[in-house]
Amino acid sequence: MAVKQVRVSDLSGRQATEEQFAKLIVHEHPQYQGPITLDVLPEEIGELPESDQYVSIEVIQPGERSGQRALLSVDRFNQLASGGDMHSVLMNAVAEQPPQRMQQPRRRGRGARDGQGKGKVEWGLPHRGRISPEEAAWVREHLDAVQKLRSERGVPLLDPADPKTKERYGL
Fold first, then answer.
1. What is the pLDDT of residues 117-154, one digit of tens each?
2. 54 beta partners
3. Strand locations in 21-81, DSSP E?
4. Across residues 15-35, what is the average pLDDT?
5. What share of the chain is helix, strand, coil (3-state, %, to 5)?
6. Which of 126, 145, 142, 97 is nearest to 134 (CA)?
7. Which of 26, 36, 55, 109 is deepest in the core (most CB within 10 A)?
């Protein structure tokens, strides 16, 4: 007796060989916790924009405590500045904001030794919870500083070749 395995696309049900399949990974979806991996044929996806960049925003309406999050293309985001240049708008806003301090790791016990508030996390160091898109972007942009900090704290360095690390931080 022989057993024959058949692979089919999760999108169309079309049959193909193992070598023909691509993986479609859904990292964020409003109705599902990701990541979710689908086996697909490349022609089912079509052409993906290669260099599109996106801006993650949150809008908090007057009188509300929480906001609505959205992902906009950089072009669509830039169009929000109808009265001028979005780059200038952002640079002015950054200049007016108080400097941000890097968050300190949580400490258990009698409280923080250095006077910092409780519940802060230093980006790039291990912590409970999910890696936010903002933290992942910061780690990508400051990988050398993160590696130095991890080394100083005796925490294993991030391995950019590790699939889990790649997925967590988008490396």
1. 344 457 788 777 788 888 888 888 888 888 888 888 88
2. 73
3. 22-26, 36-40, 54-59, 68-73
4. 80
5. 30, 15, 55
6. 142
7. 55
Angle, helix 143-152 to helix 133-141, in steps of 10 degrees: 90
How many helices (H) and strands (E) in the chain? 6, 6
Say if CB 145 and CB 137 are below 8 A apart.
no
Which residues lie across from 159 on neighbouring strands?
Answer: none
The 8 Å CB, 24+ separation contacts for 110-115 are: none
Token readout for 63 is: 């009188």
Q: Where are the alpha helices (DSSP H) in 28-132?
A: 42-45, 74-79, 86-96
Q: Are strands 36-40 and 54-59 parallel, antiparallel or unpaired?
A: unpaired
Minimal CA–CA distance to 69: which of 101, 121, 28, 27?
28
From residue 101, how far is each of 18, 98, 141, 143 by CA, in Å? Answer: 49, 9, 17, 18
